[in-house]
């Protein structure tokens, strides 16, 4: 059955090579998923060799773990590893059919990345963004071919969570959208077409949920009490563990976007802002396997 709003699949173009801009954790998870499911060359770029090596290294390591788990044999693992390469320049995208960006959540940075990618790729190469909340239409607006841009919003951990929000921007054409849906299906994701609106659909709910729990903590409830209080809801993980998984900086960014768009419905937590200003990426210490709140976080709050 065709997902709601998806164009006819006969319009989809084949994807025989994928480019990933950025080699951070999110980008590396994409590279792994693409190579596993599409089985095509995947090339990763970043701003320096160390980052590129780290990204490619992560993908190779994860393929090694899949082999250890018995999900890949030696030949399959070697073949997948050989398909994932790194490059310092975007020229390596010249023959790519799809390029996805997972760089810093800042409109000007993402527009710049897309402009650089457009300078080297073919006219029919689809450009996808994994933005969590920014306008895909605005991101595409300065390109020669904005009709090739789609939003491709995955959820963390990318390998496990089944949902993929596909965003049609104002000028996205049917062929690019159909290609995005075809790729999403090959990635074995449940694809939904969402409107290009601030934070799309899921992050609105998530931000409202995490925002209310963080507000309770801002008002004086200890983090561990808030975590414990929600246990009976049977969530897959506690709210502050989820906040750590999403990353405080990303959560803050999405909250700020939503606060700007809908000030009466979304607030920005002062404690979350403090956490990010202090450069804290984690809330817990995991040394013992059981999460213990980092004393530095307790001091900040
Ligand atoms: N990376 C890769 N695989 C992972 C993983 C990770 N970080 N964490 C868990 N897994 C895998 C495990 O290897 C295991 O796979 P297997 O069964 O094939 O061996 C499987 O997931 C289940 O893992 P566990 O049994 O250890 O753990 P749980 O059953 O507790 O599940 C979870 C872990 C899937 C992370 C679950 O806790 C969960 O769903 N949490 C909620 C996550 C969530 O809501 N994410 C959305 C964040 S919002 C977002 O990303 C959008 C952004 O724009 C902000």
Automatic annotation (TrEMBL):
Coiled coil: none annotated. Residues 200-280 form the 3-hydroxyacyl-CoA dehydrogenase C-terminal domain. It comes from the Bacteria. Residues 17-196 form the 3-hydroxyacyl-CoA dehydrogenase NAD binding domain. In the central section; belongs to the 3-hydroxyacyl-CoA dehydrogenase family. This is 3-hydroxyacyl-CoA dehydrogenase NAD-binding domain-containing protein. The lineage of its organism: Bacteria, Bacillati, Actinomycetota, Actinomycetes, Catenulisporales. The chain holds residues 321 to 621 of 705 of the full protein.
């Amino acid at each position: 059955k065709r997902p709601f709003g998806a164009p006819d699949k006969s319009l989809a173009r084949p994807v025989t090579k994928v480019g990933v801009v950025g080699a951070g954790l999110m980008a590396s998870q994409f590279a792994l998923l693409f190579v596993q499911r599409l089985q095509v060359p995947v090339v990763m770029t970043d701003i320096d060799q160390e980052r590129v090596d780290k990204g490619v290294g992560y993908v190779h390591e994860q393929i090694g773990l899949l082999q250890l788990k018995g999900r890949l044999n030696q030949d399959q693992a070697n073949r997948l590893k050989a398909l994932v390469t790194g490059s310092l320049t975007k020229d390596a995208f010249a023959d790519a059919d799809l390029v996805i960006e997972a760089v810093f959540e800042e409109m000007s940075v993402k527009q710049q990345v897309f402009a650089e990618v457009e300078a080297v790729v073919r006219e029919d190469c689809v450009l996808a963004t994994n933005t969590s909340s920014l306008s895909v239409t605005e991101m595409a607006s300065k390109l020669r071919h904005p009709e090739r841009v789609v939003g491709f919003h995955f959820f963390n951990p990318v390998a496990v969570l089944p949902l993929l929000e596909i965003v049609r921007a104002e000028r996205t054409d049917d062929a690019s959208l159909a290609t995005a849906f075809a790729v999403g299906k090959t990635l074995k994701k449940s694809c939904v077409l969402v409107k290009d609106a601030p934070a799309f659909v899921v992050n609105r709910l998530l931000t409202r949920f995490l925002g209310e729990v963080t507000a309770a903590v801002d008002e004086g409830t200890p983090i561990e009490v808030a975590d414990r209080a929600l246990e009976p809801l049977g969530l897959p993980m506690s709210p502050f563990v989820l906040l750590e998984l999403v990353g405080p900086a990303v959560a803050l960014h999405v909250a700020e976007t939503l606060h700007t768009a809908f000030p009466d419905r979304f607030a920005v937590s002062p404690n979350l802002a403090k956490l990010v200003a202090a450069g804290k990426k984690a809330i817990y210490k995991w040394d013992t396997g059981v999460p213990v709140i980092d004393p530095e976080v307790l001091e900040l709050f």
